[in-house]
Amino acid sequence: MIQFVFPLFGRFHPILVHLPIGILLFGIILVFLSRKGQNTHLASIRLAFLFGGMAGVLSSVSGFLQYRYEGFTWDSVQFHFFLGLATTATAFWLYYELGKKEDFPSFFKAKSAALVALLMFTGHLGGNITHGETYLIEPLPAGMQQLLGYETGENTGPKLPAEGWEELAYYEHVVQPILNQNCKSCHNAKNHKGELDLSSYEALLQGGEDGSILSGGDAEASALFARLVLPKEDEDHMPPKDKRQLQKEEIELIRAWIALGGKTESKLGEADISVETLEPFMEKTEAPFYPSAEVPPLADETLKKLKTDGFFAETVDKESAWLMVSCVNYGQFADADWTKLKPASDQIAYLDLSGTQVTDQILDSIQSLPNLTVLKLNETDISGEKLSALQSNPNLKNLYLNKTQVSLPQLKALQNHPNLAKVFVFDTPASADESGGVFSFLLEKGNYRLPPLPTDTIVY
Amino acid sequence: MKNLEKLLSELQVQKLQTQTRRHFLRDCVSKVGGLALAPLLFGCEIGKDGQAKTGLNLSERDLNPLAPLPPPFAGKAKSIIYLHMAGAPSQLELFDFKPELAKLHDQDCPESLLEGRKFAFIRGVPKMLGPQATFSQHGQSGAWVSDYLPHFSKVVDEVAFLKAMHTDQFNHGPAQLFMQTGSPRLGRPSLGSWVTYGLGTVNQNLPGFVVLTSGGKTPDAGKSVWGSGFLPSVYQGVQCRSKGDPVLYLEDPSGMSRDLKKNVISAINQANQEDFESIGDPEILARINQFEMAYRMQIEVPEVMNINDEPEYIHQLYGTQPGEESFANNCLLARKLVEKGVRVVQLYDWGWDTHGTDKDGSIDMGLRNKCRQIDRPMSALLLDLKQRGLLEDTLVVWGGEFGRTPMQENREGKVQGFKGRDHHTDAFTMWVAGGGVRKGASYGITDDFGFSGVDERTSVHDLHATLLHLMGFDHEKFTYDFQGRPFRLTDVEGELIRKIIA
């Protein structure tokens, strides 16, 4: 017979299995609908068990062919297969029992119920093979999954520390996690497509149906790498084009590992890879912009009060307690109005008093904001005399003094502030001061110019 | 009373008209079960405070739709200035340097590029057109910029380039809609509307979303590119006039004092408020807010929209010409507006559609002239924002709605009188700068002709996802319920472009 027929028929298994399920269930429903002594459905039930049994034969045969041609291991399919045969046999037995009798045999409902159980369990095992054993578990909440004894960790690929990665085992910390995330769902101990198992180094060394996939030191000759870089349209390209594709950094890491010899002992630091290649997998330990201290959120009434007083007042995000306060619509704000802000002293992390009537005195009040991170005093009468007061705001990072009277020497008062990173002094005596000086923070003086160019006036 | 009943029944009819299959299906699932459960779980809603609820559950936000809201997470950026070059500038003359393309100049386009492709105007086999500009690398980042943008080449270290952007629309209108609303069809809210809806406005005397146009025309897609779609119309962009008074009738007419005006407006608003309480149509609230906003704008707008008081060196920096309609003036206004707490400023500059059908539309002459108009202003904008510290939390976005072909356009199969390029969807360059953007980054690589992206391609949805992220939104969770399902700016797509995020 033509060679393709068997594998093709095997691939019809996922469709054919629904026939016995449907037909037999229909028969069984009729069994349960029939009252004692009432046998109007008897002929239909016999027919259903006959056809159900025949459909069971088709399913079993196609299932066996699929096992033979599609790279499933016997271990993973055996129970499903035998239960399928048992279901088929039971269907025929019940058909035989009904015979040509005028009434139901004894315990027939119980026997039918047993058939339902067989049918369901067989179907479930089949589903486990195609969809994975955790298919029905995954949608459950994490807590319920743990209750059922499942691990909830996901295959998320490599996770590397920003420092000390050089000493990590290349295979264990990089290669295997990449394989787990991208390959293992089809190439594992149970379901090994192409007779390949990528769930461990030992299994990887076994190779697949075309032999070894790893030739240490030569990435191009190793199918493990070569198939990744085939054009996506090529049928040998891996992963299949409708699956998640590897990032180019992941491919590069596989290449470098094979080039290094393809061994488990190699350290990540020995490989010829750039830090940029590893960067996407490094856990960012970026310090949050606002202080990490915890303060209780401002009471709703207090926040409302600030708003009715004329401030713009909002938390920096929905979860945070840190408060942003601005006087953008409150130009009359003056030193004496500070009392209105007092209830929020602990929460204010961003304060914009630009364009208000405040004077140097306000810096004394601002001192009392322990968590202040951004302070804007643009276009105010700040003379710069009391800037040293800001040394008492340990969390201050960005300070805006544009269009004030601040001078360069006065800024020395902020020298060696623990967190101050940027100070903006555009359009002040300080920005016009050319004398320079080294500061512990970035000083933005501005005064940018774009000198005229001869081409500016040419019109074609 | 009779009138009220009439109105209520009309409201009922209108409500039913907006019911869709999706509502029905959803209600079938949730309401039937809910009917049985509700009394058990919650007791009876009616009678709690002595009277039946009208069904209107109004929050503070409903009564003041532009009230500020905190973002879901602390975004790096608080406002956006979006510079849209309507008509689509040629990436091949500005940022995407393709020396290989020069070698193919005037040769027939390889079949492989044309196979299965559709172009807006190119028919048959066009000739290749080499880059018409001279390129060199600039700044610490070594970014390639052509001699068309000599000023911009000095600020490249501030920006992150997206060099393999792609879209799926090759006509201006749909492509502009796609770029601004995430959908090539009408009816979706623009990026600016989404942001204003999500964050409200900081300055209560100014609109949250302002639009300014230059270049003599508004975008082909019309005002829908800054429309609010299915969001309440209060979130749409407010277009200010680019010449003369930015907003008409800001000054009190003679004989009308400000107090009298206030009385009139509060009377109208009171009537509208009553109307709203009985009908519950949010558009009435939008109306009330517009009246109030118009009144408040009289305080702030004359000052913020007046560039005459800016010092001379600022005018020189931007190259502004007060009184004229120009991109430079709009850039300066954008800075002033953002400085005063406006969330989104959208600038449209028209005149980038360089097909080569005439001199103004040629890529060696007309395009140079257009570049001259934006080069200094946009570079000045970046520098001015930087020196004021505004670039820390302001996003600046630059780009067209698509790119241009590496081939010379051959409209109607004829050779054009001038050098020009057709619309191209597969590869084009955009840049972003400011709040939370990685400075000096370049993401995306195109093939040797600049025809397609070969690596790190980014879609319009990816860009939107990234912009929303920088503003403090998860684009997958930022939704608005309409016609029975939640809608997103990025629809069902969009991935963060992490490599341009600092």
UniProtKB/TrEMBL annotation, chain A:
Q: Which residues cross the membrane?
A: 12-33, 45-65, 77-96, 108-127
Keywords, A to Z, come to: Membrane, Transmembrane, Transmembrane helix
InterPro entries assigned: Cyt_c_Planctomycete-type, LRR_dom_sf
Query: Where's the Cytochrome C Planctomycete-type domain?
Result: 183-242
Pfam families, per this entry? PSCyt1
| Source taxon at top rank | Bacteria
Q: Which Gene3D superfamilies match?
A: Ribonuclease Inhibitor
Q: Which PANTHER family match?
A: CYCLOINULO-OLIGOSACCHARIDE FRUCTANOTRANSFERASE-RELATED (PTHR35889), F-BOX DOMAIN-CONTAINING PROTEIN (PTHR35889:SF3)
Full protein name: Cytochrome C Planctomycete-type domain-containing protein
> Whose protein is this, by species?
Algoriphagus oliviformis
Source taxonomy: Bacteria, Pseudomonadati, Bacteroidota, Cytophagia, Cytophagales
From TrEMBL, chain B:
TM stretches of this protein: none
Coiled-coil zones: none
The cross-references to InterPro entries, in alphabetical order and at most eight, read: Alkaline_phosphatase_core_sf, DUF1501
The highest taxon in the source lineage is Bacteria
Give the matching Pfam families. DUF1501
Question: What protein name does the entry list?
Answer: DUF1501 domain-containing protein
According to its UniProt entry, this protein's organism is Algoriphagus oliviformis
